[in-house]
Amino acid sequence: MRMLGTEKKRTTVLDPSLLQSITQAFAQPTIPTISPSTQLAKLSVNTPTTSSSAEEIPDLPQSVTIEDKQDTAKQTSSTSLLTLNQEFRLPTATLRRSSNFLKGCKWSPDGLCLLTNSDDHKLRVFEIPCDRLPSNEDLNAVLHLQEPELIYDFQWYPYMDSNRSDTCFIFSSCRENPVHLFDAYTGQVRASYKAFNHLEELVAAHSLGFELQSGRLYCGYDRIIRAFDIQRPGPCIGQWDTCDRVNNIYQSGIISCLSFNSQIPGMYAAGSYAKTIGIYGDMNGEMIAVLHGHIGGITHIQFSTDGNRLYSGARKDGMILCWDMRNLGETLATFQRDVNTNQRIYFDFDPSFTTLVTGNSNGHVLGWNINDPSTPILDFLAHDDCTNGISIHPTKPFLATSSGQRRFAGDIHVTVSEDEDEDNLFAELNVKKIPRENCVKIWPFNK
Fold first, then answer.
1. Strands 216-220 and 52-54
2. pLDDT in tens, 381-420
């Protein structure tokens, strides 16, 4: 792989003994995982603090086959197969908040459902008929999961299978609330995972991650990582400061994202809004290294399937860095994208882990062969607004994208005299037509 642009100084602080154990671990076979779904299904509804509703999808109109859609897509790479936007329109608009916007989308592990997050504090579940996509441009969500506050992070249960109701769960974290476990069939809150600070005040998790070998849920807080047993709702079973006082290694800031290495049990990476990535060597929070290289707060990280590489992206930072886990502190490649806001912009990989795809602030979708960051193999305009969500279908050649960003009246120049009231000002804003596109689109994904 080649490094693009000006070389930036990367620094790392290593624990030699732990680093040696990591090197040895790459040669060891992967420990098989055991799903804790049976025990998890026994959880009862104990904290119904949120409201949710379920809606059945009406009969689908006349459909066309995937082959017909893909033939059309071959003529132009910017032809979407399906557009979902009706669900994300606010019933009423105000001067300060005239539109809803999306903040990410994720396919379910079995590929039958699509989960979205939006600024109206709702998670929506769509059943996408991948075998025969509807010819119309909209579908209704089959489930609404309402949170009381701003949603920080959301995740599917890793073992989710739509044919087994005891595995259909969604985890959500929102401001000033515990982590909620939603039933993806009924929309009920099945369990809550609570954390308290030193003043015994409830604190909210900013990021979620799963350690599959142990069945633990890990959550990122302000300079603290906490672990929960998903089979035992309630308080955490362990918490660790993101620093090593003995070796004087620190990772400050809010832990904004987490990713676990599938090849080394217990090893995980934690991104921070303080522009650093911490590498932790076991499930007890022992730090191995702190990686520096981004110019903005870390918003998304992901390990490669072989565990040898770690990819990271940041806000107001146009670089996706590929870190070498066998030589911590060194980068193997830099992928350039357009990120000029504080918004979290996701990236994703195809199931074979040969193609990296990301959204951009300018609405484009970019994709590269992971071995060649110099020339994108995919580049098309997906939305007329920021493309923040990217999710590749786990089994079929589909790509889901979501768009939108927060906009204020000050984003455009408005000429209104001082004696005009707020209604006239709002009317003037409508005339100006602030550009926005808040929707989900499904695209053909042919590498």
1. unpaired
2. 999 999 999 999 999 999 999 999 887 655 544 444 444 4
Cα–Cα–Cα angle for 74, 79, 84, nearest 5°?
Answer: 140
Q: Which long-range contacts (CB under 8 A, 24 or more apart) does 53-58 make?
A: 53/143, 53/144, 53/146, 53/187, 54/142, 54/143, 54/144, 54/186, 54/187, 55/140, 55/141, 55/142, 55/143, 55/144, 56/142, 57/127, 57/139, 57/140, 57/142, 58/140
On whether the pTM is more than 0.70, the answer is yes
The model's pLDDT over 26-37, given as tens digits with 9 standing for 90+, comes to 455 444 444 445
